[in-house]
């Protein structure tokens, strides 16, 4: 028995901010709003990616449905730099989609047992 009077048991919808600052091998700093329906990631908005050491190189991005990513590159040295940044953005999106549900620490409903 516990003294708790209430607990969170489900997520209806949410927006959380995520970034890749824990990735020590990153060459691009990435952050984005992550949209959830329940605990499922449904898309990304307000994405921002900058090349480490080159803050003037900026890519804004969004993603929806796991299949469509939109980008806007500004001040990237060349196409190779854009492709490298896009690869890191896609890896970030994939990682967030795979771990998104873990962002919520929910208590299981005892009356379902």
Can you lay out the helices and strands and say which pair or pack?
Elements: E1 13-19, E2 28-37, E3 40-51, E4 54-64, E5 68-74, H1 79-99
Antiparallel strand pairs: 1-2, 2-3, 3-4, 4-5
Fold and architecture overview:
It is a single chain. With 113 residues, this protein is an alpha+beta fold. Helix content is 19%, strand content 42%. The chain has one helix spanning 79-99, and strands spanning 13-19, 28-37, 40-51, 54-64, 68-74. A five-stranded antiparallel β-sheet has the order 1-2-3-4-5. Strand 3 and strand 4 (54-64) form a beta hairpin. It is elongated and about 60 Å long. The model is unreliable at 109-113 (pLDDT under 50).
Count the strands? 5
Encode the helix/strand succession as letters: EEEEEH
Most strands sheet: 5 strands, antiparallel
Overall, the morphology is elongated
**Averaged pLDDT:** 88
Distance between the termini: 15 Å
From the alpha-carbon coordinates, what is the Rg to the nearest angstrom? 17 Å
- Residues in helix, %: 10-25%
> Total domains, how many?
1
Lateral strand order in the biggest sheet: 1-2-3-4-5
Low-confidence stretches: 109-113
Strand-pairing-aware structural class: alpha+beta
Strand fraction band? 35-45%
Count of helix runs: 1
Q: What labels would you give this structure?
A:
113 residues; alpha+beta; 5 strands; 42% strand; elongated; disordered C terminus
């Amino acid at each position: 028995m516990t003294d708790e009077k209430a607990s969170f048991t489900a997520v209806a919808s949410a927006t959380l901010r995520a970034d890749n600052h824990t990735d020590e091998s990153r060459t691009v700093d990435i952050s984005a709003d992550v949209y959830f329906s329940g605990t499922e990631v449904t898309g990304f908005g307000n994405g921002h990616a900058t090349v480490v050491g080159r803050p003037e190189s900026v890519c804004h991005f969004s993603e929806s449905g796991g299949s469509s990513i939109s980008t806007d590159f500004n001040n990237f040295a060349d196409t190779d730099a854009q492709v490298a940044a896009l690869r890191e953005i896609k890896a970030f999106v994939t990682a967030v989609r795979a771990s998104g549900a873990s962002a919520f620490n929910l208590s299981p409903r005892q009356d379902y047992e």
